[in-house]
Amino acid sequence: MKRSVFFISDRTGITAEALGEALITQFDDFERTEITIPFIDTPEKAFKAVAQINQASKNDGIRAIVFDTIVTPDLRKIFKGANAMMLDFFHTFIGPLEQELGKESSFTVGKTHSLNNVKAYDHRIEAVNFTLNNDDGATTQNYKDADLILIGVSRCGKTPTSLYISMQFGLKVANYPFIAQDMDNLKLPKDLALHKDKLFGLTIFPERLHDIRTERRANSRYASQQQCQLEVRAVEALYRREKIHFLNTTTRSIEEISAKILVKCKLSRHTSPL
Amino acid sequence: MKRSVFFISDRTGITAEALGEALITQFDDFERTEITIPFIDTPEKAFKAVAQINQASKNDGIRAIVFDTIVTPDLRKIFKGANAMMLDFFHTFIGPLEQELGKESSFTVGKTHSLNNVKAYDHRIEAVNFTLNNDDGATTQNYKDADLILIGVSRCGKTPTSLYISMQFGLKVANYPFIAQDMDNLKLPKDLALHKDKLFGLTIFPERLHDIRTERRANSRYASQQQCQLEVRAVEALYRREKIHFLNTTTRSIEEISAKILVKCKLSRHTSPL
Fold first, then answer.
1. Above 60 in pLDDT, residue A272?
2. For the ranges A23-32, A112-121, B129-138, which has the lowest average pLDDT?
3. B32 part of a folded domain
């Protein structure tokens, strides 16, 4: 029996999904169909969503589970008509917070993922652009403006991590690859040595690197077990010799790698609002 | 009086921040210092965090507010020693869910932002790589593999939006710019016309475009009010003529733009788990 799980929001639904997923994945073997309905910001849309939930509950033969972050009280009331277990991520906490702060909340929809502060937003876009322009060692001349420089062998996760950090945390992240030709006598290039306090190393298990590179260029020297082993060994030795913080990306998600780097580099996460 | 607000997690802290921010921004003029402490996954770290919270409460002269997503019950208990208002995003809901589902949760930390499913993770990385390789009209030959193709004038938000959608939702997003030379007799290029069902247009207010382009290339024709107006007008006319869905990015966050595009294009958000 598959059960329907809804994520409902008057905005993007991203927060409802994230916390809902964190909760639901605690239950093993829970067979489910997941449906996200974002931008429920009028009574019409709310009634339509309730109808969709009720239809799902009927089809499944068991009431749906609904995670929601609906802010507006009037819209919330409409969901009382849903034949579902409602888990209300927003109002559960807003009451206690009002009491603690001794004032009423403004019930303004979507202060989080909307654009309240053009300056902070520009800062974030600027960070993403910086990261794109300084990807893969494209240039080393902007390192003075970087908040962070990720280093590592080709295909160890530098680019996605750089992009995530700039997008989520508003930091300017450059990245620089060590390539096969560097390996014989691996040293920190001068442009990197000048900014050693901004460096963070990524590494990866050679077997996993071999798999990833094989997808890209099968049967090449680049993808060979031997070359992957050699590069990873050389680069990790460099990190240790130069006392550069580093992290193995193999079993970690981009979010996890990013958050760990920020901790190790003592970088603030709040340069840009979410 | 500034009050300390903590976001505490045994994983990345990203979800605690998102929901905490959504709640806290409902209170206007709430002067606060925000501190995120992620990866609280041992009793030692938990005790250290409690000490930091208590010190902040003491310094502020008022107890701190703590938003947390700590999963492990033993670690949660340690936070009972905190002189703070604790808002517990996880355990508040896990009890009711256990009852509803008729089984116990596994209390496994961090199933959300950790790497459980290598295949789904690879899919997401592949999507990001596709997006990077098909940015800014770099090539049009891969459009058959794209889930979505964003179109619009230079600097209207195509690249950050493409990257966010691929990273968050695991979709392959190409983007294609219309440039000044196209404007005289603007038509849909053949490569785009072939994939009309995948197209989504972005637009922007000409004044805002002028500001953004001025930052980039001041006093150029490219940044002039007149040119910005001309391009936006021509592109919006094209969208209407060709019946292409489009959205004005000017007052919207990347998350909001991305989520709206997925709704309009009826694209699934769950091709990759969060």
1. no
2. A112-121
3. yes
Task: Give the global pTM.
Answer: 0.88
Q: Is the pLDDT of residue B271 over 50?
A: no
Question: What pLDDT does residue A271 have?
Answer: 41
Q: Is residue B110, in this structure, part of any structural domain at all? A: no
Q: CA-to-CA distance for A229 and A232, rounded, in angstroms?
A: 5
B225 lies in the same domain as B123: yes
Q: What is the pLDDT of residues B85-120, one digit of tens each?
A: 999 999 999 999 999 999 999 887 655 555 556 677
In a domain, A226, yes or no: yes
Judge if B180 and B246 occupy the same domain: yes
Quick: pLDDT tens for B25-34: 899 889 999 9
Question: Are residue A168 and residue A227 in the same domain, yes or no?
Answer: yes
pLDDT in the model for residue A273: 36
Structural domain including A222 reads: 118-264
Which tens digit of pLDDT belongs to each residue from A8-21? 999 999 999 999 99
Can you tell me the distance from the alpha carbon of B244 to that of A18, in angstroms, rounded to the nearest whole number?
31
Stated as kind and residue range, the H or E segment containing A36 is strand A32-37
Q: B35, B88, B115: best mutation site toward chain A, by most A Cβ within 10 Å?
A: B115
> How far is residue A189's CA from residue B213's CA, in Å, rounded to a whole number?
35
The Cα–Cα gap between B263 and B260 comes to 5
Give the mutation candidate from B3, B5, B11, B25 for the A interface (greatest A CB count, under 10 A). Answer: B25
In this structure, the answer to whether residues A151 and A209 fall within a common structural domain is yes
How far apart CA B160 and CA B165 sit, in angstroms, is 9
Same domain, yes or no: B248 and B144: yes
Nearest chain A residue to B18 by CA distance is: A15
Contact A252 B25 (CB under 8 A): no
- Overall domain count for chain B: 2
Write the DSSP assignment of B187-209 as a string of letters. ---HHHHTTGGGEEEEE--HHHH
Query: Same domain for A92 and A159?
Result: no
Same domain assignment for residues B170 and B93: no
